[in-house]
Design brief:
Blueprint lengths: L7 E5 L4 H13 L3 E6 L7 H11 L5 E5 L5 H8 L4 E4 L6 H6 L1 H22 L4 E7 L12 E2 L4 E2 L16 H21 L3 E6 L1 E3 L11 H10 L4 E4 L5 E6 H13 L1 H4 L2 E5 L6 E3 H12 L5 E4 L8 E2 L4 H7 L7 H14 L1 H5 L9 H5 L1 E2 L2
Parallel strand pairs: 1-2, 1-4, 2-3, 4-5, 5-8, 8-12, 9-11, 10-14, 11-15
Antiparallel strand pairs: 3-16, 6-7, 11-13
The structure holds nicotinamide-adenine-dinucleotide (NAD).
The site of nicotinamide-adenine-dinucleotide (NAD) has 27 residues, from α1, α5, β5 and β9.
Length: 365
């Protein structure tokens, strides 16, 4: 019988919230070799690397490369040995894409192009999964919602499927959307096994949420730290929430069933059973922690979807994947992360002054 090759997994953006959860899963549940490629530009993510280093122990299975996806040579070098690539590195916020669209364009579109070009040129056709976003669907052209006490309601809405027309809105929507189309087309044109995940709101442990991105974590941490926040709009916006552990299972499902998923695009999210409005989440947080999050309201932000719920039936049909963890449980896991890591939250060290970065380059563990 042919011996199974050891997986050699490269995660661009692997120090981040989602990437570090994927890497941890691979290090602790599989015998994969894991290479993380990250420029540590997201505040706080060096803590995730420390966590991964511990998980890898002395196994020698974790390699950390400090690099930038805009650097063609560095990307090519990283890709050379990879049998699987998860491309998560990104400028992740709509707000910062509006203030600096060139930076957003160069990281999200040119950076993604560098990754798939390196994969095309390396010659061994690695599996590639790209994390796109529901923002590629714009404001969905929804009619006026019904208003319930705490949320907007669309009584017959069963979720957004992949048949929804693309409508890029905001520089972030444009850069991720264009990258999403490139990744998808590289499967058709060059026969690369690529998969695109268009994800809605992901939440869970290792997330350093801010007002700009990672709103569920931002709400919870702000309540715990008694810091008032700003809500843009009236707080009745509805989102579906997917726990990061469920997302990691979806990554694995997409890889295991790559003979079906290659060349496909999937909407990934918590679905109709895992929705919450902003106001409802504030209530849930209060029940969980005993702290009422203080907030003031401001104008709705341009491009903000009033209602987004994922129809994930396509990936369910193709791989049998579906979410297993609800919104409340996701919040409990986040709370547990916060409680176990109070040191991080009491002294958030700016990334610029972080020196461990150089120690971590090269093979860890
Ligand atoms: N979290 C969500 O709710 C969500 C929803 C939809 C899509 N996504 C996408 O998923 C991916 C991961 O998101 P996340 O929440 O883990 O974000 P994150 O900010 O925690 O992780 C992104 C990582 O990429 C790194 N990075 C940024 N620019 C880089 C560059 N130029 N070169 C190398 N590394 C760079 C950052 O340091 C960070 O570690 C992103 O592509 C994001 O657009 C996330």
């Amino acid at each position: 019988m042919k011996k199974q090759e050891t997986r050699s997994v490269l995660i661009f953006g692997g120090a981040g919230f989602i990437g570090s959860n994927l890497a941890h899963h691979l290090l602790t549940r599989t015998d994969a070799r894991v290479q993380i490629f990250d420029n540590l530009s997201r505040a706080g993510v060096h803590h995730n690397l420390e966590w991964l280093k511990k998980a890898a122990g002395s196994s020698g299975r974790l390699q950390v490369t400090l690099g930038d996806v805009r650097d063609v040579k560095a990307v090519e070098k990283a890709v050379a040995q990879a049998s699987e690539i998860y491309h998560l590195a990104a400028q992740v916020a709509v707000t910062t894409s509006v203030t600096d669209p060139r930076n957003d364009f160069e990281i999200n579109l040119c950076g993604t192009f560098n990754v798939i070009e390196a994969a095309r040129k390396c010659g061994h056709k690695p599996f590639i999964l790209f994390t796109s976003t529901n923002k590629v669907y714009g404001n969905l052209g929804l009619s006026e919602p019904e208003i319930a006490k705490q949320r907007y309601v669309y009584p017959n809405h069963r979720g957004v499927s992949e048949r929804q027309p693309l409508d890029f809105h905001s520089p972030y929507g444009c850069s991720k959307g264009a990258a999403d189309q490139y990744v998808h087309d590289y499967a058709r044109i060059y026969d690369l096994p690529t998969v695109v995940f268009r994800m809605s709101c992901i939440a869970g442990p290792r997330q350093f949420g801010t007002e700009d991105q990672g709103w569920v974590a931002h709400f919870l941490y702000s309540a715990l730290q008694r810091k008032p926040i700003v809500i843009y709009g009236d707080g009745r916006q509805v989102r579906d929430v997917l726990c990061v552990h469920d997302l990691v299972r979806a990554f694995e499902a997409a890889h295991v069933y790559s003979y079906v998923t290659k060349g496909q695009t999937y909407n990934i999210g918590g679905g109709v059973e895992n929705t919450t409005s902003l106001l409802e989440l504030i209530d849930t947080i209060e029940k969980l922690t005993g702290h009422r999050l203080e907030f003031v309201m401001d104008e709705r932000r341009p491009g903000d979807q009033p209602f987004y719920v994922t129809d994930f039936s396509k990936i369910q049909r193709h791989t049998a994947w579906k979410p297993e963890i609800g919104v409340k449980k996701t919040l409990e896991l986040l709370l547990q992360f916060w409680e176990e890591n109070r040191r991080i939250f009491s002294a958030r060290v700016p990334v610029e002054s972080f020196t461990l970065a150089t120690e971590l380059s090269g093979r860890a563990g």
